[in-house]
Design brief:
- The chain has twelve helices and twelve strands.
- By secondary structure, the chain is of the alpha/beta class.
- The strands form three sheets. Strands 2-8-7-6-5-3-4 form a seven-stranded mixed beta sheet, sandwiched between helices.
- It starts with a strand and ends in a 6-residue tail after the last helix.
- The C terminus is likely disordered.
Length: 388
């Protein structure tokens, strides 16, 4: 059976160049980067090279990049680190959007148990955070605002530059979770005017188990994890040298292809959307079509339960998702679609298609050909019999 992978927002297949470089590192560079001898310094040099590549991907200086074990750890380091650093000032107000990843939402929830106040910014049915809503939410006690760069379920891009400007006017810091935008659209942390940013390697064809936080130079951050002095005292623990090097290779690879690949994927995504909407009745796109990352579409299928459709498509060799991989296995409706004001049935009948480097016109055409029959079969199974 031909299998088609359309779940790149969950994770991406690792780039062969990344595998080759990581394999060489695992075989040859076993030294501890904290050691001052030859073997340790070779490992440290490999990390420094990767740090420069990751910095280049987001328009940063290498010295501002801190490596972590994941995007989730990065969000925790950024948000908890700022919280602990600013608590002595009396500022204990955090603002996040209602459509953030669970790594941000659950971290915010944890801070409420420490006496913090958290404000959730609403979104409308476009999935976009309004700068005006942030302006109204900000107070003199606001320490940090965290709004994601691109949403993982619907792909919408937030007006981060405008939001950061408003936060700074009230002397609050601004963090953005860029896990779903890094490698898909150009990022320049200085142009965005932000203070902290989080990314994850496995979202742009790098290895799992490694991420990074960009921290604006001079910003105070109290690491929530105690230990050694690695990563300039911001992230204790012996570095994952092979993973970090793999992230660096992936960053360099995707940076060189990003513009052309973005255009190609946007064409494929639009072809998919047009085909599905034309061939399957009762379908609609969730969220604003622009601004949006080029690889993502979220489509609702009326009278079709999303989990059943996901399984049926998998049996046809087509891998999609109902939303964040970190929320899989739960029966709860999408918190993103719920925040957008959609009725309960729509939050539970929507599928995310996220394309990537290996996808082709033929993949899209097969999905469009298969979907009508699959959806019709599922609808017939759940159709209420006529009363007699």
């Amino acid at each position: 059976m031909q299998r088609i992978y359309l779940d790149h927002n969950a994770t991406t297949p690792i780039d062969p160049a990344v595998v080759d470089r990581m394999t060489a590192i695992l075989r040859e560079e076993f030294g501890n980067p904290s050691s001052v001898h030859h073997f340790g310094q070779r490992a440290k040099a490999a990390i420094d090279e990767a740090r420069s590549a990751v910095a280049a991907l987001i328009g940063a200086d290498p010295g501002e990049v801190i490596f972590t074990g994941s995007g989730t750890e990065g969000d925790n380091l950024a948000i908890r680190g700022v919280a602990e650093a600013l608590e002595p000032t009396g500022k204990r107000h955090l603002i996040v959007s209602a459509i953030e990843h669970e790594a941000v939402l659950n971290t915010a929830k944890a801070l409420t148990r420490r006496g913090w106040t958290v404000t959730m910014l609403p979104v409308d049915d476009s999935g976009i955070v309004s700068p005006e809503s942030l302006r109204l939410a900000l107070t003199d006690g606001t320490a940090l605002v965290s709004v994601m760069h691109a949403n993982n379920e619907i792909g919408t891009i937030q007006p981060v530059e405008a939001l950061a400007r408003l936060a700074h006017e009230r002397r609050a810091l601004f963090h953005t979770d860029a896990v779903q935008s890094a490698g898909k659209i150009p990022i320049d942390v200085k142009a965005l005017g932000i203070d902290l940013l989080t990314i994850s390697a496995h979202k742009f064809y790098g290895p799992k188990g490694v991420g990074a936080v960009w921290l604006r130079r001079g910003l105070r951050l109290q690491s929530p994890m105690t230990g050694g002095k690695q990563e300039r005292g911001r992230r204790a623990g012996t570095e994952n040298v092979a993973g970090i090097v793999g992230m660096g290779v992936a960053a360099a690879q995707v940076r060189g292809k990003m513009a052309d690949e973005g255009v190609r994927l946007a064409v494929l995504r639009d072809r998919l959307e047009e085909g599905v909407l034309a061939s399957v009745t009762g379908t609609a796109i969730n969220g604003a079509r622009t601004p949006r990352v080029s690889n993502t579409t979220n489509i609702s299928f009326d009278r079709t339960e999303a989990e059943s459709l996901l399984i049926a498509l998998d049996l046809e060799g087509i891998a999609v998702s109902t939303g964040s991989a970190c929320s899989s296995g739960t029966l709860e409706p999408s918190h993103v679609l719920k925040a957008m004001g959609f009725p309960a049935h729509r939050t539970q009948n929507s599928i995310r298609f996220s394309l990537g480097a290996a996808n082709t016109d033929a993949d899209v055409d097969r999905v469009v050909a298969v979907l009508p029959g699959v959806v019709e079969k599922l609808r017939n199974l759940t159709r209420t019999p006529a009363r007699v």
